Amino acid sequence: MSVTLTVVGLGSGDPDQLTIGILNKMRGASALYLRTKEHPAVQVLDEFEVAFESFDTVYETKESFPEVYEEITSQLMATAAKAADGSEIVYAVPGHPMVAEAAVQLLKERCPAQGIELNILGGESFLDEAFVRLGFDPIEGFQLLDAGTLDASWLQPQLHTLIGQVYDTFTASDVKLCLMERYPDDYEVYVGHALGVEGEEAVHKVPLYELDRVEGYGNLSLVYIPRSEDEALKRRSFDRLHEIVDILRSPEGCPWDREQTHQSIRKNLIEETYEVIETIDEDDPEHMKEELGDLLLQILLHAQMEEEVGTFNVYDVIQGLNDKLIFRHPHVFGDNQANDAEEALQNWEQMKAEEKRLKGTTAAYPSVLDGVPRDLPALMKSYKLQKKAAKVGFNWDSIEGVFDKLDEEVAELKEAVREGHAVEAQLLELGDVLFVAVNAARFMGVDPEEALSATNRKFVDRFQYIEQKLREQGRRPEESSVDEMETYWQEAKKLLGRA
């Protein structure tokens, strides 16, 4: 003999849908518990004078639904553990026990370990009534989502979508905001209350922006979004982007796209990257949105080329990135701690080194300078090389040492130019000056790329001011003198307010 815990479904709402078998099971239970007594079928229990307890008070004492389900599970397990041999504890839930019932899933996991026999008896699900009352066939493609855990990434407009557990107006508002990430504000959706319950059923067809203005939300409420083949909705998905790039590279696609190789569009990747950087510098979000799309296209094209020969696809790229981000952030996804950005960066570098060790890519005699990309722009590469060398102590004690070195290198450059040294020698001396200037930037905590970019922008503004002043006189810069342009340059410095 042992204790049995039986979970039964009260059906979608209409008391007439309660099966005789389930009613008899509840009437004969050693103890009957209801997830909630706020269900139309409970009136049948009252008519037959069946005693029960509900877990409605648990909803009032817990702050989240996961905590509610955990508490219900714990209480049921404790009751079953104390019951006499041969007892049958019955737990009744709205709808079907296997549809949107988290506590039932917890019971399935835990009962076997406690020696408690678990039985589950179905009841009519709210899905049955939804298919009939809302008039759609799930075979066309269907997804069921929980309002409490809804995420826009799960939404697939090409599928009929039901969202359950829309208990109140606040939940409806959260659902609305989530749906608006994929659907237009005026997209027509349906709100269903108490589907199939005589005298209580209500179905409202409303534009999405009015979803939280519908009255009557409760335990038997849901939201339905009809499937759509609207191309505009598909275009908000990554899968559609992948599909379009695949089509462009296909035999039926674009002749130009088909001919491209990694090498032929290599420069495009660089150019698009710099165009994104320009929008960042200009603080132009609208233009940035466009340029980020152009950069993303380059990534998709390179991934598509590899997919065509079977090495990898863009989803492998995404998985690799996800794995890397999780592995290199142990202070977020693991047990490590990082109290500031510097500690977070140290964690990143440590995990990066561990990653290389695990992959077996660490050289027998690794260089401190390993890991700096060969083709980085020279200024940026210089900065990274110096940072790596400084980490092992190859560094000046203070910026004064850098200034002394800069004076020395400038003097050597002057000498090379004045004495007419070979062009190659002059080039190297100029490189030394730039290299030390980058070191000064590092000591100052300034990114040399940003510093030079700021000066470039300053130069453009001032020179365009000179062009404007000359244009007002019907002249061009080549028709002016250096002294005149210098005068306007000084004006620009004052007017534009930059050092």
Keywords, separated by commas or semicolons:
single chain, 499 residues, alpha/beta, five-stranded parallel sheet, five-stranded mixed sheet, 20 helices, 53% helix, elongated
Structure description:
This protein has 499 residues and is an alpha/beta fold. The protein contains 20 helices and 10 strands. The protein has helices spanning 20-27, 42-47, 56-61, 65-82, 102-110, 126-134, 169-179, 231-234, 238-249, 255-259, 266-281, 285-309, 314-327, 330-333, 341-359, 378-391, 399-418, 423-444, 448-472, 482-496; strands spanning 4-9, 31-34, 53-54, 88-93, 117-121, 142-146, 160-164, 188-193, 202-207, 221-225. The chain has a 5-stranded parallel sheet, sandwiched between helices. Helix 17 runs antiparallel to helix 18 (423-444). The longest helix has 25 residues, at 285-309. The radius of gyration is 35 Å and the shape is elongated.
Low-confidence blocks of residues: none
Structural class: alpha/beta
Number of strands: 10
Q: Please provide the ordered H/E string of secondary-structure elements.
A: EHEHEHHEHEHEEHEEEHHHHHHHHHHHHH
Strand content: 5-15%
Helix content: 40-55%
Number of helices, counting only DSSP H or I runs of 4 residues or more = 20
For the largest beta-sheet, the strand count, sense and barrel status come to: 5 strands, parallel
**Overall 3D shape:** elongated
Rg estimate, integer Å? 35 Å
Distance between the termini: 89 Å
Average pLDDT level: 90
* Strands in their spatial order, largest beta sheet: 3-2-4-1-5
